[in-house]
Amino acid sequence: MRYVRVDTQSDPHSETFPSTEKQKDLSRYLLSELKAMGIRNAELDTYGYVYATIPGNSPKKNVPAICFCSHVDTAPDCSGTKVKPILHKNYDGTDIILPDDPSQVLKLSDYGYLQQQVGSDIITASGTTLLGADDKSGIAVIMEAASYLTKHPDILHGDIKIVFTPDEEVGKGTAKIDMEKLGAKFGYTMDGGEAGSLEDETFSADSVSIIINGVSAHPGYAKGKLVNALKIAGNILQLLPKNEWAPEVTDGKEGFVHPVGHTGIAEKASIDFIVRDFDTSRLKVHEDRLQRLAQDVIDQYPGATMEFIVREQYRNMKQVLDDHPEVVAYAAEAIRRAGLEVKTESIRGGTDGSRLSYMGLPCPNIFTGMQAIHSKLEWIGVKDMVKSAETIVHLCMICEEKTT
Ligand SMILES: [Zn+2]
After folding, report:
1. Number of C-beta neighbours around residue 268 at 10 A
2. Contact yes or no for 275/286 (Cβ under 8 A)
3. Across residues 379-398, what is the average pLDDT?
4. Which of 17, 144, 158, 363 would bridge with 187, disulfide CB 3.0–4.6 Å?
């Protein structure tokens, strides 16, 4: 609850790194808390990353260094200024009216997962801001586990690396990360939802820009000459399927193509798309289909031309994790030892873990309990956070045990 009071909203339009300087307010605070735990090599770099190591204490020499990662920033979608967290003791299942905006009501009928919190404590914001459990709950459980490990030197473990990143919500959480300084064999982002959930699969993602070159002419004398790029763009958008191939009509393991932006003038227009699938090879199938659809439209406008630009965004972490099956297996074992059932899930999105996995740090995502993220109704169950912290401690022990 201390961490969410610090405003750390990131900004997608910023050119600086971190995107907002205020994220460092929390980073500095975390640094001081880590140092107060007696963790000596904790540091904050100029980009706002916090790195820390809890040195291994195992007599075994080759226990892998593992990393736990969470992000300090909160989503730009919802205000994070003057967050007032409220602890609702012994939640009884009735509606919770958030005091600063009574139109914000957390209801069991809207959030079925609340049922599992009846009789336990939950935390919400006060109605005008998000809570910031995404991902300050991840920070809280890592700090709790770190504090526990430093107070219990009898628990054997290898080097435990901690990293808190800025700018995850604006897609730049790993942009300035120092993998050498991190120095871990594999890692875990603590940035997931329901208790027990373990996410080992993300989308693979590309972006596509279609740039349409029309033919300009003075509109008074344009007969037979003018080719309007805006109309071509509109035609392409109109031809996108309505019942398939779009985020609003797909779920589960289905991929999609999704227009996210359109700019232009009569002479030249562009449409930006995102392309998503769990199967990386299917991205090309989607892109070829989109290119054919667009080219067919262009061909109806003599004189018009098109550029079709594909950019890689991120890749499904499962491709990397399948080569290191112990990384997910240890996490599943840790969740079970914490007394929970493992729910292996796929993320219809990307995480810092997808990027880290391809940067050499296989990195699935583990639950903290966060719910209704990026909204004013965001909430979290305290017992889920406790289980999440327990999972971290078990994971550290399992890595040591399994090392021969
Ligand atoms: Zn997050």
Report:
1. 15
2. yes
3. 98
4. 363
